[in-house]
Specification:
heterotrimer, A mainly alpha, B mainly alpha, C mainly alpha, A: two-stranded antiparallel sheet, 19 helices, 2 strands, 73% helix, globular, B: mainly alpha, 5 helices, 0% strand
Chain lengths: 496, 127, 491
């Protein structure tokens, strides 16, 4: 029953089972929340149980049934998929605790719909992570769009509904473009299975045809990955409750987009083909422009969540840039940043939510002096910000260092410059918040205290993880080993 | 001129007549404003199609397709009975259609008190 | 053991059922509905039995009256026929089960006649898919059409006008078909489908003329653009049960006739290479997809919106027929069962809403999703399938259509087909937003629909998803064998 081939399927089961259980226990909130927690814990456990196999270099395959002639609904656990699934499932645990504190603290309505949708989203995310071919990927990718929509419009205010419409207006056409690209690939190459190093080659069409297919793919996954100019749904989506923004729009949805970029560049097209048709330069430049412009735009935002949203857009492009540079270290950096940015960003969003629950403040200009009343929260915020800036000792440093090495390895020094510039810009939009929080005073906060343990514990945990990984990046999840495995299988051996 | 017209029109005058009936039917259907006239146009159209089939069945000098001992078992001397049978069915269908159509027209008249298409559209727009 | 009588059993059971319904209705009206449902259930059982038989033993032939073909009329049940038969009888059963309250409300005192005519309607449809004779097909086509006109007129005040327009257009279509048939008969001397396929000379002018006429005639019945104008009025003004019965299956059966005649009688090469019939159907259908979807966005009446959406969805089937490749045709056939399920579900939901709230204005749908959770959960599944999102059947039929289009290099068709999904998404998500989020303006409490009404809706909602996930099974079980000669699905 629990053999190697069925393990990926079991990874999907907990969140899937949770959905009807949550819907059935709508009247008993404590029982309902238990299902979420149980599902999160068991899902993480199943995913973790596959770590030893993946580290050995084993790729676990599991074919479910046939979806179309010659194409199956198949799951596959390779280092990249495993990394993404691990991030999503572990962070679901902390987000669930946080959600419980948040929705009870703000007395949100429609809590059952909220928790059930979350479970759906996690099923879709794990499905994306473990997809073995492009059709399975598309299935779960579109499912993710559908299941995140109820969460985006959760508050049902005008802003939320319009954010939902914008979200769909961006993601649905992207899904169709992806559909077209996948059909085109199926017609030209006859194969849709992911192969490390890519399965398309110049014999599948002219350079122009392949470039067009690549463009369609990038539009398809790039919307979710927030590549400019397809990014503007993300700041609007901040109208959703903070846990939604935290897990989904800092981790699941946007990482699914970045993951899609990695899959397409590394496992469909492959570094050789991308170099041959020259498509990687365009992608690299789009990523480079995105990470600079988004950082600049972040500085101008007064709403904390919107500032974090633009920061997310910028950091996602770090991964996209790493993928585009096609060198072993850049791929290592891209994969590592997938993980490290997730934990760091989620900490920041958790803090933003904790502040909102206790003070109903969303704007940075109103947050002066909050650090003195909510020291733990703001300390975590400080740690995570420094991590994103690239301070040594916190996890973000390792991924940025790899990306820097990767740019040099690829011979593209200009991107190294952009990465450094972005680091400076990161500092310029994070440090003022910390400064204002700790070094200014505001009498209005005299009554404010630290947020409830359900909110504070998760952010402390994720901040601590970031520090631990800053010191020993390979600890626990073997993130570095996995990232190196990914890079080696796609781009080849590292230099030095 | 006659060499061109002869095989096209004169020899096949029956089919030309059928085409004329078809046109009359279509004209009535499309151009007339009264719904009953449209119905009659449709009927004429259907009749034209029925006549088309019957015309195919005819053979020069053929007799009624009932076995006659004086004629014997020579199919070329009997008119083809199959289209006749088919068209009996088609006539039944046509009658049924006309019946349903008339019932619908009664329904429309009862509700809107007019059977003129223009007036009907006017009343529909108002309500 | 093969029962060669199975094909004739379906029409006979329906005929007997209709008569029985009329007779018992005189004595005890309440029995009429139960009898009608029982008849539909037995027909579904027969269809399953026939499907199993055809699967194991190949096509079943039955010669009516013992007169052997090609002179006698024969019924032929092959895989394509039983596929459509299953769809017809399945949908009929699901609609009939919950039909009693709605029919009683929409046609008070006349529900007995309504059920009887519905059974005759199904008789006509099952006869169409089972017959192997071209004139017999005309007869059954008109039987089903006449019943459809009557069912349409059972609706609201404007139903009479809508039914009359439908009648005129439908009869013209059938007459064109008959005219074309006349040409074919004059050239070949036979009316049997298989016999005619052997005797046809694709180059003869009467044959080509006949092909065009038959296509035009069936196009009128199938509501191919620009001959679709009758459809929105007919579906909107008919009673909800009538629409739920007619909309999913009538146009599909016309599509069946088109496939049968174009591909099995005339032959693929004649309609796609010699004459541009397939191309014409393809481009007209693309136009139909765009026009139908665009018009649907502009509607404020839910039924009218779904009617225009039907025009668009049937046009997808037309696109598949027009592309004339194995994958595209597989997509069209898969769309038959997907769309029948989706549309039936959607129209039954409209019926349920009318039952529970008394009207169907879009404004009264605000917030109704929470009050009728099961009904609208199924509605959401059907809506997602209409847009064409995975893992529903609607997605996979588009998948095959797009693959077929790309393989033949028809890029514009692909772009338009995919683009239309966006148009569909616009009006469905707008609807879903209203259903689930706005506050209901209704003061009276709205409850979930009764079990007999809600259960078919939920079954259809589930079916929509299952047909998508397991479409490969449908492909293997039915569609591979249903392909016309010469077209083979690879893989």
């Amino acid at each position: 029953m629990f053999s190697e081939t069925t393990q990926p399927l079991w990874a999907l089961v907990p969140s899937l089972l949770a959905i009807p259980l949550i819907l059935a226990t709508a009247r008993r909130p404590n029982l309902r929340e238990t299902w979420t927690l149980l599902a999160a814990l068991s899902q993480c456990a199943v995913v973790l149980s596959m770590l030893p196999w993946v580290l050995e270099g084993h790729v676990i395959e599991s074919t479910l049934w046939s979806l179309a002639p010659d194409i199956n609904l198949s799951l596959r656990v390779d280092p990249l998929g495993f990394l993404f699934a691990l991030v999503a499932s572990t962070l679901w645990i902390v987000t669930s605790c946080y959600s419980i504190g948040y929705v009870r603290g703000t007395r949100e309505k429609h809590q059952t719909r909220y928790f059930a949708s979350f479970a759906c989203c996690l099923t879709a995310t794990i499905g994306i992570a473990f997809s073995a071919n492009l059709l399975t990927f598309l299935l779960f990718f579109e499912l993710l769009t559908l299941t995140t929509y109820p969460l985006v419009i959760h508050k049902e205010t005008k802003a939320a509904l319009s954010a939902g419409r914008k979200y769909l207006a961006y993601t649905l056409p992207a899904g169709l473009t992806l559909f077209g690209a996948i059909c085109w690939t199926a017609t030209t190459a006859g194969n849709l299975d992911f192969v490390a190093g890519g399965f398309l080659s110049t014999k599948h069409g002219t350079a122009e045809t392949l470039q067009l297919i690549f463009l369609l793919f990038m539009i398809g996954v790039g919307v979710k990955a927030g590549v400019m100019p397809l990014h503007s749904w993300l700041p609007s989506a901040m109208a959703a409750p903070t846990p939604v923004s935290a897990l989904l729009h800092a981790v699941a949805v946007v990482k699914a987009g970045a993951f899609g970029v990695l899959r397409v560049t590394g496992y469909v097209f492959g570094p050789e083909l991308l170099r041959d048709i020259g498509a990687w330069t365009a992608l690299a430049w789009f990523a480079g422009i995105t990470l600079t412009m988004a950082s600049l735009l972040a500085i101008r935002q007064n709403n904390l969540k919107r500032r974090l949203a633009y920061s997310t857009i910028a950091h996602l492009s770090y991964t996209v840039l790493g993928a585009a540079l096609l060198s072993p270290w850049s791929w290592t950096g891209a994969s590592l940043h997938l993980v490290f940015h997730a934990t760091l960003k989620i900490t920041l969003f958790f803090c933003a939510g904790a502040i909102y629950v206790n003070t109903h403040i969303e704007n940075i200009s109103d947050m002066a002096g909050i650090g003195r009343r909510m020291p733990v929260t703001m300390a975590a915020f400080a740690v995570a910000s420094l991590g994103l800036v690239g301070f040594p000792g916190i996890s973000g440093f390792a991924s940025k260092w790899s990306l820097a090495l990767g740019s040099l390895e690829a011979g593209q020094g200009v991107f190294l410059g952009l990465l450094v510039l972005s680091g400076v810009l990161n500092a310029s939009y994070f440090l003022p918040i910390i400064h204002a929080a700790f070094f200014k005073t505001n009498p209005a906060f005299d009554r404010v205290a630290e947020a409830s343990p359900w909110l504070v514990a998760p952010l402390v945990i994720t901040a601590t993880i970031s520090v631990v990984w800053g010191i020993a990046p390979n600890l626990g999840a073997h993130a570095v080993d996995l990232a190196m495995l990914i890079a080696t299988s796609v781009t080849g051996e590292h230099s030095g | 001129m006659t060499e061109f017209l002869q095989p096209l029109v004169i020899d096949r005058w029956a089919y030309v007549f059928t085409i004329l009936l078809l046109s009359v039917g279509l004209y009535g259907l499309v151009m007339k404003k009264n719904l009953i006239k449209k119905l009659i146009g449709m009927n004429i159209f259907q009749t034209a199609v029925i006549l088309f089939f019957i015309q195919q069945a005819y053979k020069h000098g053929g007799t009624v397709p009932i076995y006659d001992t004086t004629v014997g078992a020579r199919p070329e001397l009997y008119v083809n009975p199959l289209p006749h049978g088919l068209m009996l069915t088609a006539i039944v269908v046509s009658v049924a259609t006309t019946g349903v159509a008339l019932a619908l027209l009664v329904l429309i008249h009862r509700r809107y008190e007019t059977l003129n298409e223009d007036e009907l559209l006017q009343k529909l727009r108002e309500s | 053991m093969t029962w060669s009588q199975l094909p004739i059993l379906t029409p006979v059971v329906l005929l007997v059922g209709a008569t029985a319904v009329l007779l018992t209705g005189r004595i005890r009206p309440s029995l009429a509905h139960r009898l009608a449902t029982a008849t539909c259930a037995s027909c579904f059982a027969i269809a399953i039995a026939l499907a199993v038989q055809v699967h194991h033993h190949g096509p079943t032939h039955y010669a009516l009256g013992g007169w052997s073909p090609p002179i006698g009329i024969e019924l032929v049940a092959d895989t394509l026929s039983v596929y459509f038969l299953l769809v017809i009888t399945g949908i009929a059963l699901l609609v009939m089960v919950g039909a009693a309250p709605a029919v009683e409300r929409d046609t008070p005192g006349r529900s007995v006649e309504f059920f009887a005519i519905s059974l005759i309607f199904l008789l006509g449809l099952s006869g169409i898919v089972l017959t192997g004779d071209l004139f017999n097909l005309y007869v059954f086509l008109e039987i089903s059409s006449l019943s459809a006109y009557t069912l349409v007129s059972s609706g609201d005040e404007r139903a009479g006008v809508a039914a009359f327009r439908y009648l005129i257009v439908g009869t013209i279509g059938a007459s064109f078909y008959l005219l074309g048939l006349g040409f074919l008969y004059s050239v070949t001397g036979t009316l049997n489908m298989t016999d005619m396929a052997m005797r046809l000379d694709p180059a003869a002018i009467p044959v080509r003329l006949a092909a065009v006429m038959i296509t035009v005639g069936l196009g009128l019945k199938m509501a191919i653009f620009p001959m679709h104008r009758w459809l929105p009025d007919a579906y909107t003004h008919a009673s909800s049960t009538a629409t739920a019965l007619i909309a999913p299956i009538m146009t599909k059966v016309s599509a069946y006739v088109l496939i049968r005649i174009l591909f099995f009688v005339f032959g693929t090469s004649m309609v796609s290479i010699d004459l541009p019939i397939a191309q014409a159907i393809m481009w007209l259908s693309v136009a139909g997809v765009l026009v139908g979807s665009t018009m649907a966005i502009a509607q404020t009446d839910l039924k009218r919106m779904l009617a225009y959406s039907s025009v668009a969805q049937v046009a997808y089937i037309g696109v598949g027929i027009g592309l004339a490749t194995p994958l595209a045709l597989a997509g069209a056939l898969l769309h038959v069962i997907s769309h029948a399920t989706m549309k039936c579900c959607l129209f039954l939901v409209v019926g349920a809403v009318e039952l529970q709230t008394g009207n169907r204005k879009l404004s009264s749908l605000s917030g109704i999703g929470r009050k009728m959770p099961w009904t609208f959960a199924a509605f959401t599944a059907a809506a997602v399938a209409m847009i064409g999102l995975p893992p529903t059947g609607g997605f996979f039929s588009k998948w095959y259509l797009v693959l077929g289009g790309m393989a033949t290099g028809e890029w514009w068709v692909v772009i338009f087909v995919l683009g239309a999904s966006l148009l569909t998404a616009t009006y469905f998500f707008r609807l879903l937003e209203s259903i689930y989020t706005r506050q209901s303006s209704e003061l009276a409490p709205i409850k979930e629909a009764p079990l007999a009404v809600a259960l078919p809706i939920v079954i259809l909602g589930l079916a929509v998803i299952l047909f998508g996930l397991f479409n490969s099974r449908i492909l293997d079980l039915f569609l591979r064998d249903a392909m016309p000669p010469g077209l083979v699905i690879s893989g």
